[in-house]
Amino acid sequence: MRIINTHNFFLTYFVYILLFEIQLIINKAKVSLNRSKSLIIVLLILYNTSFMYSKEIPPDSTKIILKTWMLSENYDVIDIEIDTFQNNFHIYNPIEQKSISNKYLGNMGHASVSNIYLDNNVSFESKFMFSRVFEQYLYTPKKIKYYKTSSPYTELYYTTSTNRRSEIQLGAKHTQNITEAFNAGIDYRILSSQGEFPKSKTRDARFSFFTNYKGYRYSVFGAITFNKFKLNENGGVDSINTATDYIATNLNDAKSIYYDRTVFLNHSLMFGKKVKIKINDTLSKKIIIPKVTINHTFSWKKNYRTYSDNEPDSGFYKHVHIDSSQSSDSSYFRIYENTVQLKFTPFKKYKISVNAGAINELIKTYYFKEYIRLNDDDYYSNTFAKFDLINNGKKWKFRASAKIGLQGHRQGDTYFNGSIQKIYDSLFISLNANYISKTSGIFETNYISNNYIWNNNFDRSNTMSLFFNIKLPYRYLNLKVAYKQLDKHIYFPTDSITQYQNSVNIISASLKKDFHFRKFHLINEIIFQKSSIDSVISIPMISVYHSAYFEHAFFKKVLNVRLGYQVYYTSDYFLSGYNPALGQFRQLNNEKTGNYPIINVFANASLKSALLFIKFEHVNAGMINDNYYMAYQYPMNSLSFKFGVSWRFFN
Q: Who has greater pLDDT, 613 or 52?
């Protein structure tokens, strides 16, 4: 098929996305069958439009998508593998993609935190306290993939569930090179879910614009990300009467909104020796072997969270401080960050490089916007010095990084990370150690709302971690052993915030091992973890993931099908509660959950440019018991059917 002008497709794509978003803004009623139909219609229009302007992915798509990058924590450019086939397309839920065990509120798109404690590493950088329960969903610059394509690339994505839950996801991604060195793209996803239990509706919108330019000496990576979560808060299920289908919730008219927007720019200028490399018999190109690189990173981030409840005196809250007729809490956070680094290679022979630089943060916050506006004209400023020593040898790799607070309310905060890796032909062994000494966050120290007010003077918390990892890729085996010590840990017991004055120790070991026998595949992961103080950090001692599937290619390998099942299991542990007014999971020590398998059955298929799955989740619901909870008073969903499809095109 002859390709029609790509720019026409790109314009059409934007128009339909814009019209779709306008429709969702106008229609604020419940998710209904009409909306489901309209979503499908829009998806089909996008599909037909892209089909007009596109051609299917050829069997070897790696010849078309030439390069994919991500930026590391230190803003180094990292090559990543191109995903030509989504092996786990049926694992569509972001929280399940990250962790095999989670606490969450049952409905997709709502608050969640991994039960695997070492998955929940809190960054050294300042954070908005309310972001943590959405991190698995958020589009952020550090999650962005940057592309170089020889042909425009488009993905369309759609999932839905049974009518009882009315869960719908719609997504689209498009990227293309404008010149050989300059690429731009967008990624958009929206989720709307009514939820199985009353007053648990979620509506999430995520968008990113990303671009990169990789020139001879100068390179730029930029992104704009936007996330907005509109959530109904039911406070948990108070009682369930299965005989009458009556379900009582703790809150009747509470809602929260979480908003996150980031503008990010990273650019580098290299100085070094010019060399010419040969591409093929007729083509060659000039590159720079850098000796000195000047790097600058700028980011602007804006967050806010609002929480409203028209019945603050219902008895759900212990205190009502300001208004007994209506809660209308608002927390606002804005940060400007500039990082300047000088990267140079003093010992080229040993492949050792050194990075030295400085970071400056400018932070503004206020609380409770409708009643009291605090710190409206006040800014917090922090300045850090940073240093990295890096070796990227063929057999040995090591890195040592340090970051120290020089000025501001985080003066004296310290971060150190060291890692060493030994590489054999088919074996990787690594050891990593880090130490963080950190001042408590702004909202953990001071907070004002209708139901919660605090002014804390917490000590600096200290965290030490050790990780040992053995990986045998050809044997599909990965072994990790870890130890973490937390001193002066800040957490939420019941409805307050406090600091544990002693140390909490956590040990962990995980083993991943896959088995492949002809067309049969077994995927296995087991994680052991133990907290020394369960009343402060309660985690399941054993978490297990097991999946088995049969794979076969039909019609001369045109259609590839996988049929299989998944099992998730955790040993028993104390349930965490959830405080909707604070948007935080809280440590409870009165009821246990776990010791319960969750079984899913799935079928995946890939047909040229299309991927699809069907999935029955929680097929064992009601066979053992019907009161399995992921958080206190938040039961897990019953049996449900899911369907998803994705189309991918090169223009």
A: 613
